[in-house]
Amino acid sequence: MAAIPDPLSRHTLVMKFGGTSVGTPAAMTQVVRIVRSEKPRWQNLVVVTSALSGVTDLLLRMVRDVAVSEETFRADGAELLQRHAAIADALIPDADRRRAVMGEIGELAGRVVNLCQAVAVLGEATPRVMDAVASTGERMCVRLLAAALNSEGVAAEAVEATQLIRTDDHYTDAHPDLETSYGMTRQGLAPLLAHGSVPVVTGFIASTAQGNVTTLGRGGSDYSAALIGAALPADDVWIYTDVDGVMTADPRLVADAFTVPVCSYREVSELAFYGAKVLHPKTIRPVIEAGIGLRVCNTFNPDHPGTRLVAELEQQRGVIKAITTVRDLRLVTVEGRGMLGVPGVAARAFETIARLGTSVPLFTQSSSEQSICFAVPAGATDRVVEKLTETFAHEIYHRDIDSVWATDEVGIVTVVGAGMKSTPGVSGRIFNALGMADVNVIAIAQGSSEVSISLVVGAADIKTALRVLHALILRPEKSHDQEIHESHENGKRENEDR
């Protein structure tokens, strides 16, 4: 029988729970169980939480509903309180504690209502006001979760990250001052950890030097956990969500999708960019740079090992790691024989699209320079084509550009795996598999890092392409540790055998 490790040999763990992990009484009960089970195993434990699932959307809807009526946004505020009260009733049996927590949550909800009234008077909501409103969900949740933990005998204290993370004043997507934030985090959390308490910290939010609330944008709560982990520093950061780690494909589209045991930073960055439900690249960077362990775990299946993320993964058991997709796109093409040697066509095209605020997840150009095409969201396509036609009106008139046009709906299917780099024949296997399934590839793009290959296919072919390409992934048969330490020779032999 293996010896039980000394709990104090594992020093500091940061655990982050997403909105679905805390969104219902049953879900938050599971979070409390997980934290309570991990507490004896770590000398220091920090919990970072998002708002309850759907609450941030509800808060932002309150601001939008100002234009409808005061009755409407007050009804939204009542719904906000009801959702938190349902969890408090289920998880906080002590009446005095429950009353105190709901009193604080009620005050926060009241401030949002006041802000909505101010917006109604002024007729607009500034980014600073939007951050003040959007941050409220996390501020409510930490109070609720800390009280729930205390009710189960786990000493915990709610902490607002406005006291830990300092940012610039780029509201709604603020950038942290790392040096200042790391110092503030250590200073703010050290006393609580020294007394054996579990800080329950707001994700997503921070503050400026003037004390104004800011938010960290997409992936904000995960980013908060990474920053806190790097500041302490932690031994590990565990990100809890509602799936068993990073999946080889979307299980809703590929029935036999499974968890990727180990994933490199580059791989997960590509997966995140192309639509997979994984961490945003900015979340990972502070942890990886600090040499801290990072895992993606499932709140509702805590015994599953999830996915371990590492800086580099030279030993590859399989060449292809995962498949992901971005749907609801169209491909816009600018083409003309007169484009050959004409400088600035791509620059002008992208400048036009940027002015529209439209994202471009993929772009490719023929080597003859006679056409350039890029994917844009389907809903923005007509506007993009219209503005590009205006931009190149002179070239179209002089027949340097023949046309600007768009395809029907398409999707981007991206094959990801660091093992593809310097491995011959990968593209051949991919295109052969698609050809055998009668899937037509409309366009292709590959990054210089060779970690991914992106293919554009028709909307009707997306599921078929995912299923066919997923069959090229080797299913793991070994543990996480064995996966990490497996030799390159064994991995190469398995790929050849396949």
UniProtKB/TrEMBL annotation:
Database matches in Pfam families:
AA_kinase, ACT_9
Question: Residue limits of the ACT domain?
Answer: 415-487
Keyword set for this entry?
Amino-acid biosynthesis, ATP-binding, Diaminopimelate biosynthesis, Kinase, Lysine biosynthesis, Nucleotide-binding, Transferase
Task: State the SUPFAM superfamilies in the record.
Answer: ACT-like, Carbamate kinase-like
| Function as written in the Swiss-Prot or TrEMBL entry | Catalyzes the phosphorylation of the beta-carboxyl group of aspartic acid with ATP to yield 4-phospho-L-aspartate, which is involved in the branched biosynthetic pathway leading to the biosynthesis of amino acids threonine, isoleucine and methionine.
State the family it belongs to: Belongs to the aspartokinase family.
This chain belongs to the protein called Aspartokinase
